[in-house]
Amino acid sequence: MQKNSLTLDVFCLKSKKMTLFDKIWNKHVVHAIEGGPSVFYIDRHFIHEVTSPQAFDGLRKRGIPVARPDKTVATADHNVPTVDQHLPIRETLSRMQVEKLTENCAAFGVELYGLGHPFQGIVHVIGPELGITQPGMTIVCGDSHTSTHGAFGTIAFGIGTSEVEMVLATQCLLQSKPKQMRINVDGVLQPGVTSKDIILYIISKISASGATGYFVEYAGSAIRNLSMEARMTICNMSIEMGARGGLIAPDETTFNYLKGRKFAPQGTDWDAKVAEWRTLVTDTDAQFDQELHLVAEDIQPMVTYGTNPGMGIPVTGLIPEESSLEEKERLSFRKSLEYMGLQQGAAIKGQKIDYVFIGSCTNSRIEDLRQVAAFVQGKQKANDVEVWIVPGSKQVEEQAKAEGLRTIFEQAGFQLRQPGCSACLGMNEDKIPAGKYCISTSNRNFEGRQGQGARTLLASPLTAAAAAVTGVVTDIRDF
């Protein structure tokens, strides 16, 4: 294959060979309804304080219990503060939602990792690190970024509040089987290019709606060479290109990550499970509805300039000119640049930054923090930049302290906060002021996502760390 190429193959007919998705899907269909959706069994249900209160109220009104409380895990993440978590939550709505989650879990016998618990954290961080997330499972949560768990070879996707109630009541969902896409990334990544850059590159190529209606399998040598935490970043942002979810076949990297974790199988059960998990691969010659092929060497550090994740360019690139776009895209493009205060044809490199946010379910794991600490050690943040580093869980927070990362951050002028969703979304106290620019490792850059009037540029932890030091969007490769 020649470099600088993107090829697309469309297959109209499916072979009898099965994809990884097919294998998991078929094992979980309880009943197929002719001409309609299937009754689909769910192995693990994660809940949090935002999308569960109405679902529990529905159970109360119907006078029914949670069908499988042993398959349900709750944590507080969206509304929690990331400083002084030992004190009452100041925002009234946030406090009410967290308190209601505590009340509902106690009433219905659901395990809760609330504030103060050593396992508390962002729902899509704690599932994998505790070994609750395992290959071959079906996993749902009332949160679109449930696709994160697909990195382990699971069918994982977000659901709405009415569906949260359905799973609580029956441990099943009504689901129609989606189309399937495979995205192959082969080759060797350039220095300074991370998994966040891979997924931002993919979305920039196919657009924020390019995978609508599909479940995506990521494959290829560049994907296989990624760590588990890097794979989670890629699957996390599958939803940002419209996909129902994303998944990666489990392999030795997966098994090594899971072995010995709190809720992972132990002893002979472990050996039996690994033997089962090894079968979770797409058959040779299995066909997909669409298949993409990308060259890893083409990918550079990426930064978004607009108000959807598909509006991304290499850090050395120029913001597009309106004339290069289709007519139907031009109005939203103009609105986006007006909101962001940026100009057509301008360089993104050198753009002034006010805030840096390193965190969210996309990039708040210990590997992300280690990567940032290794870069900033011995350096200082720019004087006029505020830097928040928010670990994805209490376990990540404690590990960062034990490894001396907090000391490195503090010496650089960075603030290591307590775990939560934080400035990923304007639903808690960590909001970016109107008009200010934040380079963020989170997953969405919509208008007002980080606070009313906030301007978000998505990037990798390394690119964000470089901006924290220089005060402007910077090519990490310059260091």
State the main characteristics:
Aconitase, domain 3; globular; alpha/beta; five-stranded mixed sheet; 31% helix; five-stranded parallel sheet; disordered N terminus; 479 residues
Description:
This protein has two domains: 1-300, 2-Layer Sandwich (Aconitase, domain 3), CATH 3.30.499.10; 304-478, Aconitase, domain 3, CATH 3.30.499.10. The relative contact order is 0.14. The protein is 31% helix and 17% strand. Helix 6 (195-206) packs parallel to helix 8 and helix 12 runs parallel beside helix 15 (461-470). It contains 15 helices and 20 strands. The strands form five sheets. It has a five-stranded mixed β-sheet with strand order 1-13-10-11-12. The chain is globular and about 55 Å long. It is α/β, with parallel strands linked by helices and 479 residues long. Mean pLDDT is 95; it is low at 1-15.
What would you say about this model in short?
With 479 residues, the protein is of the alpha/beta class. Helices cover 31% and strands 17% of the residues.
